[in-house]
Amino acid sequence: MEKTTRGARKLGTPKEIAPGLFHWTSVHPEIGVRVHSYYWSSERVLLDPLLPEPGGLAWLKERGPPEHIILTNRLHSRHSAKLVAAFGCTVWANRKGLFHLAPELKARPFDDGDTLPGGIRAVEIGVLCPDESAVVIPQARAAAVADGVVRNGNGPLTFVPDELLVDDARDAPRVKRELKAAYLKLATLPWNHLLMAHGSPWVGDGREVLAAWAGD
To answer: Which end of the chain is more exposed for a tag (fewer CB within 10 A), N or C?
Structure first.
């Protein structure tokens, strides 16, 4: 997982990385590491959101406000409850992870291949956990992933350490092979920008980078 470092761009400050697509980093209050969130303002869709800072709710209201929240796995609800309370957002999550989410979120399920708000396509990754997912945003030429592939800041694609990846270290090689196979399939779809939940987004050639890593 990505630790906070000095000299990095100020945490929580959104940056437009593609037309209408904003990215920011925040320190997760529960796990104490930097995580990444996204807002596709043209369709008012948040991905795995912690609030941007400063003035997160006001910033979002000025650029929306958001109407939908899409979670790439059940552990990424983050500030969803605050956003539902403030804006009445609809939360979307993989059906296999709904049991974990707080009832007050009233999350709606998606399945592999479903079309979500904004024409976003749900892609089930699985392997790491049943609800591990990716989503493809055709109009933004982007794909967002959860925890099966990460970056340390601006470093190369990798996996989380084995002790976080699996319960039994003997399972690590199999899990890595199966995750890479799932990401190779994701890389056959048309998109350019790779939006990471853990690590900086890979803007421009993310699909090619993911395909090369998964095929290695």
So the answer is: C
